[in-house]
Write a structure and sequence with these properties.
single chain, alpha/beta, Alpha/beta knot, five-stranded parallel beta sheet
């Protein structure tokens, strides 16, 4: 199964970028991975323009996971169970989507196959990127029974 991560903007802070790259490298031992950074909207464009850019970047048959504050709260073992279910269903590609500062457009939310929340807390986008990569990596270590998750 291929994992794609689609998010708005580039990671500018070198420390968050290094952490992202580290988890992406670790995750690549379990699955093929790809990151797609979408151009941020200008002040007059907003979430609808970003939403169109997100939708254009999604492969038509991908299973889209929207990371959204209004999404389902899930534990790390719960995420591992979902990923294992997706693999057992034979999904070829799963795409995790993180919207911009204004959230995502209604069209992106409608396109999502599932919506998950990372936390009730608010994180910067750079933090959220590192967290989702770490949590997906953690899920795979749970699936494989590796000691990392403890």
């Amino acid at each position: 199964m291929k994992l794609r991560f689609v998010w708005i903007g580039k990671t500018k802070d070198k420390n968050w970028k290094a952490l992202q790259d580290d988890y992406l490298r670790r995750l690549s031992h379990f699955a093929r991975c790809e990151i797609k950074e979408i151009k941020e909207s200008t002040a007059h464009e907003g979430a609808d323009i970003e939403g169109e850019r997100i939708l254009e970047s999604l492969n038509p048959k991908t299973f889209a996971v929207l990371l959204d504050v209004k999404g389902e709260m899930i534990s790390s073992p719960g995420l591992a169970k979902k990923i294992e279910e997706w693999q057992n269903r034979g999904l070829k590609e799963v795409t995790f989507v993180i919207g911009g500062a204004e959230g995502v457009s209604g069209r992106v939310a409608e396109r999502a196959d599932i919506s998950l929340s990372l936390s009730f807390l608010t994180f910067t986008h750079e933090m959220a990127r590192a967290i989702v990569l770490e949590q997906v990596y953690r899920a795979y270590t749970i699936i494989k029974g590796f000691p990392y998750q403890k």
